[in-house]
């Protein structure tokens, strides 16, 4: 199947700093990428939907000024957590989807574990 | 009302047992349905698609009931390695994906 990578896989940062997470589709063009957050023992929570070349659509309750999403190319989307705080510590997962695909399958990245101290 | 509602779980079953999970969806226009499996601290991985005619893959059977608007996943002869969280996904249209909250399964020796 298609491959999606995320970088970094694990990051620790101090409170108040910003962290950028990259999501790349390695062998297909992703017209749409999704960003999720998952707290321990909880389900995936969709944060935003990112379409290449346009502004991201954020889910209710997700601060767009805090979680900056850029989808500048068909293979790369970035999520920047600005002024991170300990409560932002979570597992961030991206997924990618190609509108040209025959199915609606999403391909997930391996996730980025963020710890804010 | 949530777009997708999933059995709360957790399910703790002995090896060899048969276990079933359900997800109900609210939008009758939903087009595609999937079951994903997520292991602890890992990303979800596609387990199987769900078709109107039902589909089977080894010990796993997925079914769709459009009239009652639910999908199901049946696992027969449970193995220890089946322990994971199972997520249902419902796609209403392009870019409208809805995940269930996940059902935790633990298979006990």
Plain-language structure description:
The complex is a heterodimer of chains A (117) and B (109). Chain A is mostly beta strands and 117 residues long. Chain A is 0% helix and 50% strand. Chain A has strands at residues 4-7, 10-13, 19-25, 32-38, 45-51, 57-58, 67-73, 76-81, 90-97, 107-108, 112-116. In chain A, the strands form 2 sheets. In chain A, strands 2, 4, 5, 6, 9, 10 and 11 form a 7-stranded mixed beta sheet that branches. A 4-stranded antiparallel beta sheet of chain A has the order 1-3-8-7, with no helix packed on it. In chain A, strand 5 (45-51) and strand 6 form a beta hairpin. The radius of gyration of chain A is 13 Å and the shape is globular. With 109 residues, chain B is mostly beta strands. In chain B, 0% of the residues lie in helices and 56% in strands. Chain B has no helices and 11 strands. Chain B has strands spanning 4-6, 11-14, 19-25, 32-38, 45-49, 55-57, 60-65, 70-75, 84-93, 96-99, 103-108. In chain B, the strands form 2 sheets. In chain B, strands 2, 4, 5, 9, 10 and 11 form a 6-stranded mixed beta sheet that branches. A 5-stranded antiparallel beta sheet of chain B has the order 1-3-8-7-6, with no helix packed on it. The relative contact order of chain B is 0.34. At the A-B interface, strand 5 and strand 9 of A face strand 4, strand 5 and strand 9 of B.
